[in-house]
Each structure stands twice: as structure tokens, then as C-alpha cells.
Task: inverse folding
């Protein structure tokens, strides 16, 4: 099942009309008139999922899907600094999809490209949402987060639970405001889901929606996929995760901007030359994962291990302090953004693959499930899709074991970002189908 791309649909030009604002705008209110970019027909979706191999998981499309660009009011990391965020709404349509739809609120995975928006039907993550949810009768809203695309916020608060939650919750409000103008009929039920960083964001959003807005949102379920829920625990790992050179510097510099206490001088955390520009590198206006490395902006490339990339970038004492001391400023910031200890009211699904080298379930998903279990929480289930990933992508149906082989590099290099997501989304939709 190769990585899927939607190549048959072009994005139509759209003109956005500004609506103005105020010094204290309503959170989730629309800034621009919702722009209908295009409509993906059920036949187009089926053709793309068949060509890509996604059809067995997505199923035959029941609905056409209208792709709508949103730009809405929200708040920043302090909670009272009004700003904006953009995103996409996917609206099911057609004769078979006229009934009021439950709304799936989605949070995307880590993105290093500042201009990228999910309001693009050719985006592979957007198309996955269209095929897995909207084409099956769900309305979907997905935020671009603070600091991306049309957002004028000065930075992205990466893995900052509170602002992730407000971005997602305000996207739900924006979708409700937009519904009438784009022909969406919403049932009132809301499901939260997200993948990778988005799994952290969607769980934070479900927690906040149930805790703070219980009368506003009818939360039917949450499916949180391959998310880093145990950030403080991850800092204690002796070895670097795959993608360390992207994710950990992004996290450290983000929390420094939010809290101002992670380090007193960037040079005490990062080595030269990275200390000279790392605070303004991510997200990047022009570079992607590949070109960040090939340009020399971040370490990596053939033969460079995650540990070598880590050691090239970070001052050893800084990471050792966070690994060994709970009072280290980075460890303190991480605990503020852990998601352990909350009790969901609606059903929750945790999903991931045991072979994930970037967000290891042993550190995050399993610890999260054990935390729920230890407190007698009974409405949480946990699924491991590793056997499915191996069967689909492993040579002979097994994960490659030779770390020097091309097969090993390809398999584990693609596991988290490409192989794992569709299987977890299929599990999420299975839960949503039970409660919609």
C-alpha cells in the first residue's frame, strides 16, 4: 500500500472577503468568508484510494466532499492574546449524505513548513481525512495551528497543550459558524482525533472541552493516534528518537518562548552554529524536512544516527540535566504539557504501532493507558497496529532486522509518517461509527 497522493483534482481559485474584527473578538468567529476551494466527487475519491492502495481501509466513498478554507479568531499561548488561525472544513454532500453529520475535529502532525495549509485538496493529510471521514458522512474541521499558513501569531507553540487545545476547540466553533454558508448540516456531536503532534493536541482538546465547555460541546469520543502524551518521560530516554533533530529543538525553543525559563542563554542549550539561528528556524518559510538537512541547517543525512544528530546540536549538560533532574527547567516545562492524570467522560481510543521509532508506544501510549487503568478509568481502549504495518510493508510480512540494510532504513524511516497513520485512522473511524 504505497503512499497516496491526490493528483486528479486541481484547487480552484477563491476570493476571500475580510470581515474585520475587534480588540476582543469572539473565539472561533470567522475572519474571512468561508471559501469553497473545490468539491471532490465520490468517484474521484474512489479512483485515488484505489490507485494508492488506501481503498481497503477507507472503503468506497459514499459522499462527495466539499473542501472549504477557514480563517478564524483564536488566542495565543497566554490565553488572552487574541490572534488568528486558519484551517480546512470538509463537508460531505450528495444524495446519500443529506443527514446531519457528526463533526470530527482533527489535529495534524508535526509540520516544519510555515506556509503549509490543510485547506488544499492535494495535500496528502487532507485527502486522508476526506477519504477516511468526510467521504463516509462525517464533517471534518482541521486547524493549521498557531504560527502556520494564515495565522499571524509570531511563533508556533509546539507541543504546548493549552494552546493546541484552544486552536482545535476554536476550529470547531469556526466550523459551526461556517456551516450554514457552505451547506453543512451538523448533528451537534463532536469527535476529537489527531495524529503524532496532533494526537497530543486532540487529547488536550478533548480534556479542555469536557472540563471547561461541557455544556457547549457534546463530545461523543476521542481517538488519539501515535501522540507524545508523556513528554517528561521521553526526556529521560538515553537514546534519541528518529527525527530528533527536528522535533526536540522545535520543542525546546517553543517552550522557551512560552515560558521564558527553559534556558537563560540559547548557547547553554545548543552548540554553535545552531545556537545562532535555531530559535527562528522552525517552522520555516521555505525549507522542508529534506532541505533543512541538505542545506546544513540541521544535522542528518545518510549515515548520521539520531544520537549523532543530538550530540551535534545540544550541549550535553543541558540534556543530561533534563534527563536526571525533575527540577531542571526543561523537565518542569515538559511536565506542564504531559497529559497524564485526566479522566475522560466520553470514550477514548489510543492507537499506535509498537515499532514506531519516533513516538514509541512504550513511552507514550502504553504509559497513558497504564495511567488511566491505575485510576480505574474504564472507557479507554488501546490498539497496536504494528502487525498490520509489518504485513503491509515489511519484507515477507515482517519488520527488517538488519540496521545496515536499505530495507531497514526505508521501513523505519517511513513507519511513523507514512505507514502507521491510515491503520490508526481506520481504528478511529471504527470507534466513531459506534457513537455517531
Result:
Amino acid at each position: 500500500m504505497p503512499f497516496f497522493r491526490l493528483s486528479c483534482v486541481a484547487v480552484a481559485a477563491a476570493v476571500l472577503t475580510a470581515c474585520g474584527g475587534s480588540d476582543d473578538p469572539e473565539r472561533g468567529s470567522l475572519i474571512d468568508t468561508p471559501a469553497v476551494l473545490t468539491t471532490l466527487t465520490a468517484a474521484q475519491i474512489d479512483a485515488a484510494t484505489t490507485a494508492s492502495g488506501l481503498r481497503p481501509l477507507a472503503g468506497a466513498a459514499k459522499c462527495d466532499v466539499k473542501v472549504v478554507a477557514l480563517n478564524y479568531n483564536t488566542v495565543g499561548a497566554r490565553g488572552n492574546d487574541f490572534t488568528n488561525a486558519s484551517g480546512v472544513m470538509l463537508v460531505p454532500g450528495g444524495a446519500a449524505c443529506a443527514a446531519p453529520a457528526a463533526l470530527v475535529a482533527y489535529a495534524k502532525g508535526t509540520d516544519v513548513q510555515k506556509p503549509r495549509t490543510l485547506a488544499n485538496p492535494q495535500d496528502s493529510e487532507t485527502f486522508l481525512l476526506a477519504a477516511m471521514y468526510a467521504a463516509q458522512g462525517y464533517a471534518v474541521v482541521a486547524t493549521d495551528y498557531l504560527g502556520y499558513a494564515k495565522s499571524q501569531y509570531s511563533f508556533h507553540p509546539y507541543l504546548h497543550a493549552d494552546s493546541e487545545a484552544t486552536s482545535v476547540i476554536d476550529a470547531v466553533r469556526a466550523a459551526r459558524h461556517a456551516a450554514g454558508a457552505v451547506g453543512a448540516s451538523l448533528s451537534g456531536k463532536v469527535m476529537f482525533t489527531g495524529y503524532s503532534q496532533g494526537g497530543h493536541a486532540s487529547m488536550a482538546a478533548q480534556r479542555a472541552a469536557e472540563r471547561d465547555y461541557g455544556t457547549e460541546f457534546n463530545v461523543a469520543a476521542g481517538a488519539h493516534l501515535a501522540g507524545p502524551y508523556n513528554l517528561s518521560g521521553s526526556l529521560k530516554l538515553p537514546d534519541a528518537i528518529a527525527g530528533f533533530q527536528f522535533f526536540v529543538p522545535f520543542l525546546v525553543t517553543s517552550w522557551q518562548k512560552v515560558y521564558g525559563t527553559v534556558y537563560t542563554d540559547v548557547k547553554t542549550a545548543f552548540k554553535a552554529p545552531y545556537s545562532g539561528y535555531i530559535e527562528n528556524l522552525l517552522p520555516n518559510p521555505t525549507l522542508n524536512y529534506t532541505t533543512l538537512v541538505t542545506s546544513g541547517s540541521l544535522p542528518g543525512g545518510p549515515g548520521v544516527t539520531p544520537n549523532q544528530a543530538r550530540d551535534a546540536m545540544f550541549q550535553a549538560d543541558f540534556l543530561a540535566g533534563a534527563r536526571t533532574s525533575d527540577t531542571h527547567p526543561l523537565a518542569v516545562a515538559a511536565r506542564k504539557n504531559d497529559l497524564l492524570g485526566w479522566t475522560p467522560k466520553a470514550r477514548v481510543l489510543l492507537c499506535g504501532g509498537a515499532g514506531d521509532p519516533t513516538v514509541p508506544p512504550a513511552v507514550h501510549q502504553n504509559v497513558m493507558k497504564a495511567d488511566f487503568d491505575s485510576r480505574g478509568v474504564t472507557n479507554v481502549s488501546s490498539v497496536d497496529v504494528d502487525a498490520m504495518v509489518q504485513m503491509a510493508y515489511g519484507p515477507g510480512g515482517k519488520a527488517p532486522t538488519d540496521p545496515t540494510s536499505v530495507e531497514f532504513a526505508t521501513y523505519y524511516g517511513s513507519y511513523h509518517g507514512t505507514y502507521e497513520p491510515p491503520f490508526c485512522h481506520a481504528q478511529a473511524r471504527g470507534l466513531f461509527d459506534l457513537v455517531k
Summary: The first helix runs from residue 42 to 52. Strands lie at 35-40, 64-75, 82-93, 101-107, 139-143, 186-195, 218-225, 347-352, 380-384. The chain has two domains: 35-230+340-435, 241-336.
